[in-house]
């Protein structure tokens, strides 16, 4: 019998599927350290920030951990990195929803809809000229499955899309070319919009700081749907306030919830959302379908999909 422990918030507790040879239990994140000794498989269905250092010493039978997000940075503490357990993520199930969010944010920003909504609330009738995206250049930092879906959708809007990855290489169906992410500062000014879709790793932490922002065009925008610490938030606030860059669409932040004291709340050239880019009404169904497919592989001794390299934080290729 394979014991699967589902870690979730109390409000999300649900009936589990009936699968031969599998027994399910659920626990809240606060109960995990006491419950993990029962588990061979962990499914994280919660996005709560959590300190797992007290968990791993009790994980005596654990063999596989599945994260319900594409990013696994919240789980990658030294205890997990040093363990023998397999780690998989949910890459693929959020791609379209996130790509649609990115496209909507870009279009709303270049069409100046936030400013128009402000004038609506003030009952001001004022015509202003906006720009478009056809023929403009976009850079997607992180050419994984989410980044590729973003590339496809922006390409369908008529944008010329490149990517930045861990190595320079020719492009493909989604990207005109793939540039080296370590050289971002040198070419950031070539793009109308930079979209951050890379996982948070030691390599990407603070990737977009004052120097990269200063290299961008004053009319350009930044979209972040990866993790807040990929951007130096203080430098971004300064760049937006000074006109160093034109606008931003931000779904993730260094501290979440975003503190009420953050100047980002009051900027009319910022679209700010509460870490919801991947939220879709069929998310739970897609997550369970992916997990059950991987669970079938696990039961039959077949290779799992979406296995993450615990040292780099990237899915193994």
Write a brief caption for the model.
The chain has 9 helices and 13 strands.
Give keywords.
single chain, 317 residues, alpha/beta, eight-stranded mixed β-sheet, 13 strands, 26% helix, elongated, NAD, D-isomer_DH_NAD-bd, NAD(P)-bd_dom_sf
Can you walk through the features of this model?
Keywords: NAD, Oxidoreductase. Residues 105-277 form the D-isomer specific 2-hydroxyacid dehydrogenase NAD-binding domain. It comes from Rhodococcus ruber. This is D-2-hydroxyacid dehydrogenase. Helices cover 26% and strands 17% of the residues. An 8-stranded mixed β-sheet has the order 8-9-7-6-10-11-12-13, covered by helices on one side. The chain is elongated and about 65 Å long. By secondary structure, the chain is of the alpha/beta class. The chain has 9 helices and 13 strands.
């Amino acid at each position: 019998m394979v014991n699967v422990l589902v870690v979730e918030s109390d409000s999300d507790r649900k009936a589990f599927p009936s699968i031969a040879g599998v027994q399910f239990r659920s626990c809240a994140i606060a109960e995990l350290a006491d419950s993990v000794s029962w588990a061979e498989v962990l499914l994280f269905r919660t996005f709560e920030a959590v300190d797992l250092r007290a968990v791993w010493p009790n994980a005596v039978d654990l063999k596989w951990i599945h994260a319900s997000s594409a990013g696994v940075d919240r789980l990658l503490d030294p205890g997990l990195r040093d363990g023998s357990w397999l780690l998989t993520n949910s890459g693929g199930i959020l791609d379209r929803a996130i790509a649609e969010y990115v496209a909507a944010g870009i279009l709303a920003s270049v069409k100046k809809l936030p400013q128009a909504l402000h004038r609506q609330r003030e009952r001001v009738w004022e015509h202003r000229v906006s720009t478009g995206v056809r023929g403009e250049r976009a850079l997607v930092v992180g050419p994984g499955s989410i980044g590729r879906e973003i590339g496809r959708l922006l390409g369908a809007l008529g944008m010329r899309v490149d990517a930045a990855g861990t190595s320079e290489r020719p492009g493909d169906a989604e990207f005109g070319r793939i540039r080296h992410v370590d050289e971002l500062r040198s070419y950031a000014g070539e793009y109308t919009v930079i979209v951050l879709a890379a996982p948070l790793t030691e390599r990407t932490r603070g990737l977009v700081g004052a120097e990269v922002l200063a290299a961008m065009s004053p009319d350009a925008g930044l979209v972040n749907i990866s993790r807040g610490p990929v951007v130096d938030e203080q430098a971004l606030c300064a760049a937006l306030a000074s006109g160093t860059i034109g606008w931003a669409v931000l779904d993730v932040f260094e501290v979440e919830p975003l503190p009420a004291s953050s100047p980002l709340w009051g900027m009319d050239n910022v679209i700010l959302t509460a870490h919801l880019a991947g939220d879709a009404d069929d998310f739970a169904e897609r997550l369970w379908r992916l997990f059950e497919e991987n669970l079938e592989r696990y039961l039959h001794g077949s290779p799992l999909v979406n296995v993450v390299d615990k040292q780099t934080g990237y899915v193994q290729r």
